[in-house]
Amino acid sequence: MSFKITYAGLDKQVEVQDDLDSILDISTRNQIPHLHECGGHGRCTTCRIRVLDGIQNLSAKTPTEREASFIRKWDPSIRLACQTYPKGPVVLQRLIWSMAEVTALQKELAPEGRAEERPIAVLFCDLRNFTPMSSQNMNFDLAYMLNRFYTAMGEPILMNNGIIYQYVGDEIIGVFGTTGGTREKNCTDAIRAALGMQYALEHLNKVELKDLDLELKSGIGINFGKAYVGHLGHPTHRQFSVIGDPVNVASRIQGMTKTTKTKILVSLNVMNSIRENILDTGQEFELELAGKEGLAQLTEIKGFKEMDSQLELQSSLHLMLNDQDAFAHIFYEKVFEKSPETRLLFKRNMQDQGRLLTHMLSGIVYTLARPDHLISGIKALGKNHVQYGVTAAHYPIVREALLETIDTVLGTNKTPNTMNAWQTSLDFILEEMQQWNKVKT
């Protein structure tokens, strides 16, 4: 049995051989960009699609999908790609094409006419010396550089449960806590994102921008407080907005990184929200912020005192999967070398299988900031792998092959902390996945 999935707007068709894969799996295997912010576990709605034809050829909605549809009042043609399995030809349209469109999701979480005051952490990141850079470089080079900058700096925000709220000139603004979370978690996520942005900028300068003879620098300010979360604008063009004193102060704090010659500064509100003795701090300042009375206490952040596994995994992921096909090839060669009989478990084209592997690894790292999503996703993986014929004896082989592959691919970019973080995380993930093997026996 084979049939075609047609992606409207892309003028692209892919042939499907069976009904074992979700639409998201099919997109991933065929290298069709398809957002799945939660890793494809039904914990977000960024993979949503509209079915233009062939709705009768789709699997019934899962309880997770029914709940999402009910809350958002979707019409029957809108489905979640990660929850939907085609059984015949389908014509579909992706509804969220890029993370820039995730504002649409925030509108659903803050419906029209129901603005709220929420405790949030706000991060302002500014690209240094953009004005002289503009006069010294060609326009298209600047556009390329800015797009690479926004991409590199945006990923740590998204990985840490934040949203990219706005781009303002050469600034990027991230917000943490619009959908909930404790004060401590939102502030910790913001700080981890800021540190991840520094790692990302270092890589950007070393690898992607070296031929343009550019070295980008940034300053980051973080504040915490209650802000208005809702919609503003003309009735015909209202948009999701976050406004209030915490936002303004975060911008002022970012400006002070120039004066203090620091990379990351946070407010006293942020420091009071974080557990003691987990941050490696630098200088402390008492400075006057424009528009504010009195002196603001600001603290320089250099890192975490002890290894933060999330930061290590997030910072190494883009290096590790820079060439996803190469990573997967090395991994499976190691698996087959250690256990030749495992070849019989793989019925797909190995290139397709490799893309599913790297998709899975990316999804796990992206959901580290959402522990409940992570656990449910790992359990689903374990259940699926039992159905594929994976046994408890295979897991040590996979663990060893993955660690060797990560070590090989990262090369000189790895540190002892990086490998320790991957080892600890893989031990946890594979142990959780094996629970289904124990249930089966």
UniProtKB/TrEMBL annotation:
Keywords: Cell membrane, Heme, Iron, Membrane, Metal-binding, Oxygen transport, Transport. GO terms for molecular function: adenylate cyclase activity; heme binding; iron-sulfur cluster binding; oxygen binding; oxygen carrier activity. The keyword Magnesium does not apply. Transmembrane segments: none annotated. Residues 121-254 form the Guanylate cyclase domain. One of its GO terms (biological process) is cAMP biosynthetic process. GO terms for cellular component: plasma membrane. Residues 303-438 form the Globin domain. It holds the Pfam family Fer2. It is a multi-pass membrane protein. SUPFAM superfamilies: 2Fe-2S ferredoxin-like, Globin-like, Nucleotide cyclase. It is found in: Cell membrane. InterPro entries: 2Fe-2S_ferredoxin-like_sf, 2Fe-2S_ferredoxin-type, A/G_cyclase, Adenylyl/Guanylyl_Cyclase_3/4, Beta-grasp_dom_sf, Globin, Globin-like_sf, Globin/Proto. Residues 3-102 form the 2Fe-2S ferredoxin-type domain. The keyword Transport applies. It comes from the Bacteria. Belongs to the globin family. This is 2Fe-2S iron-sulfur cluster binding domain-containing protein. It comes from Robertkochia marina.
